[in-house]
Amino acid sequence: MKNLFQAGKLLLLDLASTFFFLFLYLLTKNITLSVLLGMALGVAQIGWEFARKKPIDTMQWLSLFLVLGAGTATLLTDDPRFVMIKPSIIYCVVGIVMLKRGWMNRYLPPVAIELIPDVATIFGYAWAGLMFLSAALNLIVALNYSVTTWSAFMPTYAIVSKLVLFLIGYVTMRTIAIRRRGRLAATPS
Q1: Cβ within 8 Å of residue 53, ≥6 positions away
Q2: I need a labelling partner for 111 at 20 to 30 A (CA). Which of 16, 71, 95, 172 fits?
Q3: Residue among 125, 123, 102 at smallest CA distance from 113
């Protein structure tokens, strides 16, 4: 569970500049200010890691590249959709990584890996599917609705969809693990 929260924290940090842009835009309705400060946050995050002599992960570099690219495109065109599309790219990258068989194992206790590796694999693919669905939905909303609508809908959807899948996965895996453990205990040695 600790590893899952750590992964969630890292993903939120990768999306921090987008959320910061969104918050500032909703507060100020100023695209230029919001984009510039969102870009500054992205650069500051990398700068902070350098200052602490921490290695910069590939996703952090990708996030910075997307922040600067989408921010620059937004500033040049005065069109916030470039920033709004960034989460779709990140969702796709995360979805591709989640297509690796067994990626969830590092987030499971040893007993779960022993009892339900097949179920964990299925839920790993379900998570990948959710990432691709989220990418598509974000793209649709970003291209067809206002910044205000996008900013109200996407964070709510992002939190609720991930929480629902997490709870379904947790309950399902726990239930199946308990049943399998009971069957193993009932089987004569």
Answers
A1: none
A2: 95
A3: 102
Give the burial class of 9: count Cβ atoms within 10 A of its Cβ; 0-12 exposed, 13-18 middle, 19 or more buried: exposed
Q: Look at residue 81 in the predicted model and tell me its pLDDT.
A: 86
What is d(CA 61, CA 42) in angstroms, rounded to the nearest whole number?
10
pLDDT tens track for 70-84: 888 888 888 888 888
Q: Which amino acid is at 42?
A: G
| Residues ≥6 apart with Cβ < 8 Å to 150 | 84, 141, 142
Backbone phi and psi for residue 108, each to the nearest 5 degrees, phi listed first:
-105, 150
Q: Which two tokens stand for residue 78?
A: 């005065």
Contacts of 13 (CB under 8 A, 6+ apart): 45, 60
What band does 117 get if pLDDT is binned at 50, 70 and 90? very high
DSSP for residue 106: G
Q: What are the residues whose beta carbons fall under 8 Å from the beta carbon of 181, sequence distance 6 or more?
A: 111, 115
pTM: 0.73
- CB 75, CB 10: distance < 8 Å: no
pLDDT of 124 over the 80 cut: yes
Question: How many residues would you count in the chain?
Answer: 189
d(CA 70, CA 92): 16
